[in-house]
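Archive entry. Fields below.
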Amino acid sequence: QPVLTQSSSASASLGSSVKLTCTLNSGHTNYIIAWHQQQPGKAPRYLMKVEGSGTYNKGSGVPDRFSGSSSGADRYLTISDLQSEDEAGYYCEAWNMNTRVFGGGTKLTVL
Amino acid sequence: EVQLLESGGGLVQPGGSLRLSCAASGFTFSNYALIWVRQAPGKGLDWVSAITGSGSATYYADSVKGRFTISRDNSKNTLYLQMNSLRADDAAEYYCARLGDGESRDWGQGTPVIVSS
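PREDICTED_STRUCTURE:
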């Protein structure tokens, strides 16, 4: 089954950009993944899907500051012009016919 | 607007049972697969179970197989999770989610399950 690896934490300054990484394990490097944001004390929120080609499709209402990309086994979430409300946990998700997995999540701190 | 509203969480003793519900609105319920995902305090997201739109197929994480049962009532637009033989490590916030084209597209607000004597 797929396994997703994320760094546990990241930080960046207000107004800057940050690129978060989700890495797929060997044998699953062509998987589509989804990114979700979880603000403190709230439910997760779907942000986008990212394909191995780098094509990404965002959910309704997701700001233009959020984008996705891909390289090999890595799937990226880039947030530009960081705002205070972007301080949150970010989780990637992968799935197949009978299972789904989440990465361990990256806690993003906006300085 | 898609809405998912979980209920049924609460305090239960180890070995006890609980049934969670997820009431849905804003979409044609029977057309969509649904899942349960949980999150222990301070931890990440953990997939629990999935069910197809018709209810004909169900899937479980190994950690809950044989103890939890997912079901749905398409006439009531409601998803369920029957949890038996509860353990301390089942304590978590439980979320239901609607699947899009594979991904978890819409999330409920969650319901807490506390397992303690």
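CURATOR_NOTE: Chain B has no helices and eleven strands.
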